[in-house]
Sequence to fold (372 residues):
Amino acid sequence: MLILKGFKYRIYPNPEQEILIRKTFGCCRWMWNRMLSDKQEHYETYHESINITPAMYKDEFEWLKEVDSCALDSVKVDLNQAYKNFFSKKGYGFPKFKSKKDNHQSYRTNNVHNKNDTIRLINNKNIRLPKLGDVRIKLHRQLPANGRIKSATISRTPTMKYYISILVEYDNGVEQQPVNLENSLGLDFSMHSFYVDNQGNECGYPEYYRKSQKKLAREQRRLSRKQQGSKNYEKQRRKVALVYEKSSNQRNDWLNKTSRTLANQYDIVFFEDIDMKNMSRCFNFGKTVHDQGFGTFRTMLDYKLKEDGYYGIYKIDKWFPSSKTCRHCGSINKNLTLKDRTWICPDCGAVIDRDVNAAINIRNKGIADLSA
Fold:
């Protein structure tokens, strides 16, 4: 099966390369803001769209020629896609201007397939990139032997670490498997235990961000006493960023391992189509929802299942009353509230655990949808 997959590695640019990377960040940000501004002004004046390319600005702003031209072309592609998303009526907002103060910086460059690829590994110790040359890389895992590099994204974290994400197209040698609905699992999102499955098992999330709050508060108090723009302020800002980075890395590691465990056991997993962003805005659940990363977990589990040749995940309608429906007789308890963790069915008298009941109903609904 031919798939596209990204492989992320730590890179260590030398001082000259680091300067050029920062210049590329700035040029891509400037190009995005300038093209977005020109598009808006042209539409307000002539009431029609305009096609703009980065090459149109290089004669006036010659410093744009110092950076990778593919990175600037990627800005145009991303901006056009942002406009398409906005007009697709799927809830996307209008493209926004990018800020210089954003500590998450990145740019994407494409691999030009000629006699020698413009992006390629050199002796597993360096990676050759356009304009930058050979950059030292920590190759902790090998790229697929039959893979073809499509593009690379160079990024910098708030802790001033540089990474590269290499997009590779390759054949993983896995054939698509038929859907086996019997080997499936229904999961219901749980605020206190991450998820509950249809077998009554609770996951138990370690709450990495909650555990780091005491240390984070101490480092942020120290940051508040520093003068902005000073060297001590920058040092303390990195310490605060390190606390965030550690909890984020712990969360991603746990989510990857948990999703891999489920992907090895089941062919398909059923979820409710819950909007986690809206969930975080309701009932003062924001900090807990963001700490758990349930939306990221669904994405990880989906691509892991598909890589193994299985169906992936299936989301049922978010308005389906999974918690209020009795799994025994099918009656709906319209008076059920969030505080009711267990309830008694008024029709059949069954004592029902809210989360387990929801997980079972989610699985049954998913199987019914796919069978139909």
In short: The longest strand covers residues 2-12. The first helix runs from residue 15 to 46. The two ends are 27 Å apart (CA to CA). Residues 343 and 352 are 5 Å apart (CA to CA).
